[in-house]
Structure prediction request, 378 residues.
Amino acid sequence: MKVAMRRSSNLVLVSSLALAALALPFSGVKPASAQGSQRALTRPVDPNAGTIRKDNKPSPGTADDKGSRPGENDPYPSSGVTLYQRMGSTLPPLPPEKPYSGPIDDAYGAYQRGLYVTALEKALPRAQAGDAAAQTLVAEMMSRGLGIAHSSKDAAFWYGQAAERGDPAAMFQYALLLMQGRDVTRDKSKADDYMRRAAEAGNASAQFNLAQILIADNPGEKGLRLSLPFYEKSAEQGISDAQYAVAQLYVSIGDLPAEKKAKAREWLLRAAKAGFDTAQLDMGIWYVNGVGGERDYEKGFEWLRIAALRGNVVAQNKLAHLYINALGTRPNPVEAAKWYVLSRRAGLADPALEDFYLGIEEEQQKQAIDLANKFRRG
Prediction:
């Protein structure tokens, strides 16, 4: 039986995303690489990153006595969002598409079933006749070497043709090429225009990247406010980097409606459940410090443990503190020492943990080192 499938608006034509975002000062935007295609890079190590504390007083070095952050003595999350690459993780399903009653696209149907030669045979004549959807499909297949020899230069040509005709996925891809100057002449102005048009047409990845651009081009709170609507739209479509950014902005921008601020933890939780290790780290810290809701040491411990098992260095450091202070778990000096050894090996110094480590028994140190040596990222 012949199965024909329509073109999905969420086809894998979305090139990967690398999270940049809200840290002030902002260091600049990188075009991103696709979610789920890269190994994780954890948060850049900061000696004050996400300090865990038992009371509601600001941690040393994180706020002054005048309350320079929201709420004079309120706990607040680790500082902003910086540049990350996404880890390989299963993302939550996107919202269901609206019922489709348009024409069936046999080329995309063949592509989705893995019949690449057939897909190319059906798409190429249409692409040459000016069909934007077919041009995008041909570009995708050429960029991946599916059904035809890999050619990034030819792919760039077809992405450009489809972008000129308004295909959202092609506009996003071509914007990335223009940003990088890869196989086309670098042109930031043109790249920004295509990124905005793709975002306004509903492309989730373009919405996220446009938010990044707006922050880079508009330092300070202005950029945060301009970017927020696009982060929100991208987050609604299941982009976990955007969900994380929305959570951070909801607690960072002072005068947002209360109903938005109340959803900050919900957005961070969605990003954490999607497998974003930085969101998992912050989720743990938010629960422990009472950011965006009530404290919950047990949930905080669990999220920090998940992030630590996935190799997040800061989470490993914070988990050691939880084991020492019996926050959300029973005290366990060997486990605490193990996580400290792992984070120290990764370059995160912590004098307090070093003092703890030197103060435990030699046999406990040996056990911790042995466990650290056996550790494998989950």
Observations:
- Confidence is low (pLDDT under 50) at residues 1-49, 56-92.
- The CA atoms of residues 207 and 230 lie 5 Å apart.
